[in-house]
Amino acid sequence: MFEIIKAGGWIMVPLILCSIVAVGIIVERLWTLQASRVAPDHLAAQVWHWIRNGEFNEERMQALRAGSPLGRLLAIGILHRASDREVLNDAIADAGRHIVQELDRYLITLGSIATISPLLGLLGTVLGIMHVFAAISQVGLGNPTALAGGISQALITTVVGLMVAIPAYVAHRYLRGRVDELVVQMERETARLVNALQGRQAPAEWQRRGDREAA
Fold first, then answer.
1. Measured between alpha carbons, how far is residue 177 from residues 41, 67, 172, 182 in Å?
2. What pTM did the predictor assign?
3. CA 176 to CA 162: how far, in whole Å?
4. What percentage of the chain carries pLDDT values higher than 70?
5. How far apart are CA 176 and CA 186, in angstroms?
6. Over the stretch 125-173, which tens digit does the pLDDT of each residue have?
7. How many helices (H) and strands (E) does the chain have?
């Protein structure tokens, strides 16, 4: 492994750093963007039952805000449920923008790594070819050993650049889609809770759950 890194030249250093950062971001985002951490199942239904039964207090409000991004949106909806629809939507949208920014954290960096890694590999390829031509000008074509270093650098950096870029790109697209999916889910659950609190019919599954708990 060390010989491969050495053959790739100094350009291998930023490529290795990119790979380490990419792996760290992917692992951290996969952990952070779990549905159970961002938008727990049945959270909106549980909050609705607390409010309906008079069990929702300031302590539970604080726990709701601190528990998950969905909880923060639900708390905003509860606080503004008596406001005009426009004020309510603006408050939820403003909170949603901050939450999306948090969910998107590091994804720009991951996308940048996916973009620059092939370029770094290409730079290594160009440097390797320059090394080959410099060797040819000095010893001619009769000494393959003198040419091997430049050829190795050209091939290794290209391969390593692609090996870093392809997984980073795939992970970036997956995580970006995961964020979009979670945002839609949070918006849907918040709208359902607000509608229920404003006197509209609560979702049937919420009512069935409440009946089971009451029984």
1. 19, 23, 9, 9
2. 0.81
3. 21
4. 78
5. 16
6. 888 777 766 666 666 655 555 555 556 667 788 889 999 999 999 999 9
7. 10, 0
- H or E element that contains 173: helix 144-197
List, in order, residues 6 or more apart from 87 with CB less than 8 Å away: 80
On whether the CB atoms of residues 128 and 95 are closer than 8 A, the answer is no
Q: Tokens 């390593």 appear where?
A: 160
* Tokens linked to 78: 């509860």
Q: Are 179 and 156 in contact (CB under 8 A)?
A: no
Evaluate whether 161 touches 136 at the Cβ level (below 8 Å). Answer: no
- Cα Rg of the chain (Å, integer): 27
**What confidence tier does 214 reach under pLDDT thresholds 50, 70, 90?**
very low
Query: For residue 62, what are its two tokens?
Result: 């604080």
